[in-house]
Design brief:
Layout (H helix, E strand, L loop, with lengths): L1 E6 L5 H12 L3 E3 H10 L3 H11 L6 H12 L8 E4 L5 H12 L7 E5 L3 H9 L1 E4 L7 E3 L18 E2 L6 H25 L2 E4 L8 H14 L2
Parallel strand pairs: 1-3, 1-4, 2-3, 4-8
Antiparallel strand pairs: 5-6, 5-7
Helix pairs in contact: 1-8, 2-3, 4-5, 6-7
The structure holds adenosine-5'-diphosphate (ADP) and zinc ion.
Length: 221
């Protein structure tokens, strides 16, 4: 099954995607994580995308599409994958559909987490994430603090703040999200893959609730 996670920055799509990936035993492919690793390792690709990421702008479609197609050509994605942060534009969605249909596959579900801008800003400013890229767990100093300050509950690595999780860049990322998501959501509505969740971010069980709702929907897919 190929599942797409949609939602603004900090909407929880990474956490929900991570859980579904574990429960369905499908690889979790997050383009933002791939790009951050490239930045950290100062690769040629990293140098090329830095200016976009630092400013909360989208990396050009052709760059992202190539990365995802390469990843989806690896054997572990043969039975499906959770795509998180991709597609972000209608052109990326069209390219993905073409790639999958050439292999007799399709996007089975597009799960949207619909969180208001106000809640997103509140949440993301206080977000801290695990520095171990194989873990990637995220915490929130107010809503979901780690058991030990600065340390990941899951793997014990150091927790860090993402460079682009500052108010200015978040506002820019939100702006970009609203500019591009409308036609993307419309696209998946038309294919019949879209399912929207309205998370209550003030609930302690928000992640569990979102995961159950998503899994209930996926049951019939
Ligand atoms: P967010 O929390 O904003 O949803 P991500 O981790 O998904 O963050 O992405 C971080 C940055 O990586 C984006 O602001 C953008 O610069 C780049 N990026 C990630 N995925 C894509 C994509 N599918 N298309 C274009 N740019 C992307
Ligand atoms: Zn961790």
């Amino acid at each position: 099954m190929y599942i797409i996670m949609l939602g603004g920055p900090g909407s929880g799509k990474g956490s929900v995607g991570g859980r579904i990936s574990e429960d369905f035993n499908l690889p979790h492919i997050a383009t933002g994580d791939i790009f951050r690793a490239e930045l950290k390792n100062e690769t040629d690709l990293g140098k090329k995308i830095k200016k976009y990421m630092d400013n909360g702008l989208l990396v050009p479609d052709e760059v992202v599409i190539e990365i995802v197609e390469n990843r989806l050509s690896q054997k572990d994605t043969e039975n499906g994958a959770i795509l998180d942060g991709f597609p972000r534009t209608k052109d990326q969605a069209i390219a993905l559909d073409k790639f999958l249909s050439e292999r007799g596959k399709k996007v089975d579900a597009a799960i949207e987490l619909d969180v208001s801008d106000e809640d997103i800003v509140k949440r993301i400013i206080k977000r801290i994430v695990c520095s171990n890229k194989d873990c990637g767990e995220s915490f929130n100093t107010e809503f979901k603090p780690p058991k030990v300050e600065g340390i990941c509950d899951k793997c014990g690595s150091k927790l860090i703040k993402r460079a682009d999780d500052n108010e200015e860049t978040v506002m820019q990322r939100l702006k970009v999200y609203h500019e591009t998501s409308k036609e993307l959501l419309e696209y998946y509505k038309q294919t019949g893959a879209l399912f929207t969740i309205h998370p209550n971010i003030y609930s302690k069980t928000v992640l569990e609730d979102n995961v159950s709702e998503a899994k209930e929907y996926l049951k019939n897919k």
